[in-house]
From TrEMBL:
Its cofactor is [4Fe-4S] cluster. Residues 123-293 form the Flavodoxin-like domain. The gene is TYW1. Its EC number is 4.1.3.44. This is S-adenosyl-L-methionine-dependent tRNA 4-demethylwyosine synthase. Keywords: 4Fe-4S, Iron, Iron-sulfur, Lyase, Metal-binding, Nucleotide-binding, S-adenosyl-L-methionine, tRNA processing. The lineage of its organism: Eukaryota, Fungi, Dikarya, Ascomycota, Pezizomycotina.
Amino acid sequence: MSAVCEKTDPLQGVFGGLPGAKFDDIVELWHGHRTPIIICALVVLVVIRIYIHKLEEAEPLRALPKQFEKRIEPLSANKLPSAVNSEKPVAKPNGPRRIKGGITKKPATEETKEYDKSRPIKMMVFFSSVTTKTEKIAQQYLSTLEKSVGQLSRGTERQFLKPELHDLAEIDFEDFFVSPAKTVEDAHLFYLFLIPSYNIDTINDTLLQHLEETHHDFRIDTAPLATLLGYSVFGFGDKEGWPDEADGYCFQAKELDRWMSKLTGRKRAYPVGMGDMKSDHAERFDEWSSGVQEVIAHVASSGTLGEGAPGSGDAMESDAEDVAEDDDGEVLIGEDISGDDRESSRPLDDVEDLGRMLRTSDGKGTANGKKAPLAVDFTSYGASSAKKRTPTAPVIKEMVAKNSPTYAALTKQGYSIVGSHSGVKICRWTKSALRGRGSCYKYSLYGINSHQCMETTPSLSCSNKCVFCWRHGTNPVGTTWRWVVDPPEMIFEGVKENHYKKIKMMRGVPGVRAERYAEALKIRHCALSLVGEPIFYPHINEFLAMLHAERISSFLVCNAQHPDQLAALKAVTQLYVSIDASNKDSLRKIDRPLHRDFWERFQRCLDILREKRFRHRTVFRLTLVKGFNVEDEAEGYAQLVERGLPCFVEVKGVTYCGTSTSSNAGLSMSNVPFYWEVCEFVKALEGRLKAKGLKYGIAAEHAHSCCILLASERFLVNGKWHTHIDYKRFFELLEERGADGDWTPEDYMGEPTPEWALWGNGGFDPRDDRVDRKGRKIENIVVREAPPPDSW
């Protein structure tokens, strides 16, 4: 049995060569001595590694250069260590260092060293203005600065250049607020701002948005305007509508000061001045300007704004205690913190740190019961700026709230405000037609019964601030819709109700004709041209559909500043586009648009009108303002007509409204052209159009309104002009083919234009009587030729 086992044991052959060695003995030997064997092997390996390491040459440290090593100074014999310093310092973590909030302020000597007194100094005054009041104050202030330049030069022995005045609506912000303005003289610059605050969209909003974007743009330096000598802001407000700063008094001036503080690196030279336009603005402005002049003299002589208290120049207001102590959990450069705070505020440098914090969490969601580190605004200065505000949800406001000054101003002018952004007002031509004293030019040119016309708008907000606007500059303005949106059904019912109320108020007026009063109680036409920008209303197509459903024709006027809304517009009886200038500079001067790309928008609207010319009756409305857009601009207008190819070109002289707003804008009766001047312009325009091969001719006129109509020869049939509209046929086409149906303006072209309305006949309705201010009949006399110079 044992022999068989020996033969079948495979291990015996393997270990049979070892004399006296058995497999079982080897295994037993290993189990008995494996621990010392392993330890000896490890010791041998460690000794070998140390020996090899000693033979290698020491390489310099690559992570940190030599100069960052701490230099150890020998302890002098007469200086003994104190008990305070005997404590062992707290060890700092070895991981990547955290970027600490705040900046290291330059010593005053360094700032003075960089200041080059050989360079001249230039002050730049920036202003914005809607009603031109601030513009006049800015111009007067510029004159004062120019006179004081000589005194500053003598007092500081520095060269001062002539100050510059800039309208914020006419400059490119990138030239002044991304980096300081470039001057030929390479001058030191000092910025001054005169800013009124508005609760409507103005150029102020565009500027503030630009400054905010510049501040947060990672491609731009933290303080791109830090090379300015300084800046200061004065704000104009109205305490009647906004009693204090909490309610919005001078809020845009304060906001501008905040962003300028960030962009200049805390170069606020003088506190924000604020003045009430209805009481003490002149006194407050004098105090501010005197203080600014003293600061400029100091800066010119020393090159710095001087020493400031803690928090001086910061963007946000805070107490001195807040500046010194409140760091909102952030570690300031050179500041000592306790070991516990150091541990709690240590950043998450790696994912491993997160795991370590989770392991040590006390179960309350934060490590060691401490708050997690807060995010750092790397573009803010000082501890005070670290105070965080809880973000609040944006509140959508009403465009014209009932308790707002805008509401009070518009209702005083005779408007009925419907909802929060719509309005209706009875036209003077409606009153005149009710009494048989003449109708609007639309009756002569297009056949609209003035006493059956409702003048309204679903949007009181406009994107322009035209110099000839009748609305006293009190209507809201804006570039985007940012208000509550009223439903079109409410607007439609509201404007009808208020229009009928105003018509019924006329029934007791002497001279009102009974038959016309009865007709006036049934609206047949709607002029969407009261004020503002009708296509700005988001539901304009729905509103138009409601008008058409009750067989009310629509005459919609836009200012060529909203091309997207214009392109989306559906069926409309007649579409107007106001063309107030023939070139970019004139348009900026007359319309004062809010959009910075106003000219590009204007041109896009003309292109859209060209595409719509076979679906809508399109009209260019040219408002002539003498001294602005009449002289030598016929060629420019002809080019615009060639681009848009409208069905009609309506040329009208401006009507002077006689308000203080217009006078501030530079308008007076001298800017109202005579009718013969309008006639000469239209003849010149017709000649330019024919020279370009465009088939337009003078079709009709309404001399009483200083209005003349140029029409495309598409509406010249058998030698007769057909400028009137067949309203019945328009609604039939709309019902048969829908708002997107395929039809042309010629399909609802009316009967031939009446003889009395044609060019050369004056255009006054023969059924009515023209009277003077005292109700006496007067003869219709039309002067189409320039009077001889002797008669002037």
